[in-house]
Every structure is written in C-alpha cells, then in structure tokens.
Write a structure and sequence with these properties.
Blueprint (H helix, E strand, L loop, with lengths): L1 H14 L31 E2 L6 E2 L4 E3 L11 E7 L22 E8 L9 E11 L2 E9 L6 E3 L4 E9 L2 E9 L2 H7 L1 E2 L2 E2 L6 H4 L2 E2 L2 E2 H7 L24 H13 L55 H7 L17 H13 L8
Antiparallel strand pairs: 1-2, 3-4, 4-5, 5-6, 6-7, 7-8, 9-10, 11-12, 13-14
Amino acid sequence: MKNLLLFFLFFLILGCSDDDSYKVIENPVAVDLENVPYQKLSEYNFFIGELNKLTPHPDVLLYKPNSELFTDYAKKLRYVWLPKNTKAEFVSENESLNLPVGSVLLKVFYYDTVQTGSQNKILETRLMIRKSEGWIFANYKWNDSQTEAFYDMSTSTVPFTINHNNHNLSFDYTIPSDSQCLSCHSKNAEPQPIGIKPIYLNYSLSGTNQLQNWIRKGYLESDLPQAISSVVDYSDSSKSLNDRARAYLDIQCAHCHNPEGSSYYVSLDFSFSQTINSENMGVCMPSTMNIPGFDRGYIVAPQDPINSALLYMISTDQPQYKMPRIGRSLTHQEGVELISQWINSLEPCPSFD
C-alpha cells in the first residue's frame, strides 16, 4: 500500500506540469539579493544537470533578440529569470522591459568551432542582477575543464583561435571589467539592459512570437500595444538593405550613441527608431573626429565607402579608432560588407554650389 501511494504521488506531481511534459523536480533557483553575486555560477541553480550542458532550470526562460551584437564571432545564449509571482512591464517599444527587483539576465558566450575541430568551448557567462538600488554586473569566467565558472570582474584576455569560413583566426578574447560593462550598458550613467527591448523581441522564433512567449510563460504583463515595431535580422538578405544597415548600426552602436548613452557624439543617434533620418547615422555629416585622413571628409560619404569614417572605424583593429571600442578584437567582415553595400546605395550629398 505504501509503494502504491508513492506511485500515485509521483504520478500526481508529473500531472501538474503546465506543459504536460515530464519534469524532474530540481533545486529552486537561488538569488539572495543580500549575498549576490556568488563566487560560483552553479550556486544560482540556473542550470540543471551538468553545468556545461547549459540546460535551463524550468523557471529560467531562453530568449533571443532579432538582431545581435557582434563579439568576435562568439555564439551567445540568453536567459532571464524572474522572482516568483512577478512579471516584467512594457514601457515603450524602444526601451528595455521593466524587470522587477530580483530579476537576473544571463548571457553565455561560447564557440562551437575551435580551430579545425568541432568542440564547444564556453568562455564566460555575464549576469545582470536587479537589486533594489539598481542593476549590478556579475561576470563568470569558465575553467578549462568546463565544469564551473567563477566570479571575476577584472579585465582578462583569453588567447584563442577559431575557424571561420574555413580560415583560422587567432586573437585575444577579452572578458570585460565592471567599468567596461557599464560603458555600454548605460543609460544616463546608470546600468541598463540592452537586449530586452520590445523592438528586438517582437518577431517569431520557431513559430512563436518572442514577446507572446514571455506572456505565455508568465514573465510579461499582457497589456501590450496592438502595434509594436520590430528591427529586422541584419543577416537576412531578403530584407531591404537600408533596414538591415539600420538594424546593424542600432545593435552595434546605439547603446552608446544616443542622447542618453555614454558616447553621444554631435547629433549621431543610431537607435532604429531615429535612423529614418539618415543624418542621425552620419550621412553627409562632416567628420570632426581625430582620425588621420578623415578630418575633411564625411562620417558617411554616399557611394564612397573608403572615405567614410564610419566604415573605417568598424573595419580597423586599432584600439584608438575602432568601434565598438569594447567587445571585439576581430573585424566583423560580414558587417563591413553590409555597411559598404549600404553606403554605395545612398544618394549623393546635396550640392550647395
């Protein structure tokens, strides 16, 4: 009788699953705001089973923005966890969702092609944790055995070689410090998430709209506007060249280059909502930047990529000139090609002679 009772209890637990699948009862996610950041990534219980399998806890939601920041060809996995009985709130389509105190955003950086082999290599996991006083950063560097990631907010580099398009690329992968994280994740000098703007999540992934998936999982209030804009995937050649360029410059540049960002330069504003006006991207705008050879040119010179300061900055690997300044050691060749094509497609600057 006792064994039979245990069987029915087990069956009842399985039957309570919200998606009718068999779920193993795991330790709950542990985020104690008085004691975070923890010294080890495993202490949070964000992942179940072997840590390097990156299997999210049932209470952790995987998401993916439509347009992604380039980071030396690293692959990325993004997750969000919210405290029980809380939900994110919509602010506007161009502002990050307002996540409740106690929320955590996770971003895992890994490579699935190392040199000429095909082994996965996880380098770092970055966390943003919302405490009552605001967001904090917590970076975790993975050990060589891929069994654990340890808290480390100092800048560090990992000599690395990857195979991209059948070419071996050797570089120093950089794991950022706290201040470097803030230089990009900043709004009016306060830490701020980037990738959870509705404009990045309003698209279908595997047949499900990302925003609606947040609502279905109980992670987002359902009072969304009927119409929300969306960026395009800049790698999708079926989309218009202009929209792809706008999306690319938005995700690569707009977190700093906007009126509330850390690098607002003259009137440049690369936010997707603002680049309907091409001048906000520097088109036909004289360059006053201290870059050799561009002192009398344009930031973007239509039909003249070589003489466009913007293209030079996203192409060069010289630290004092490259853009973005943080997050890449390699040149994003596909991005350079996209922006070159876009510049060549632009109408000439008006003549005032």
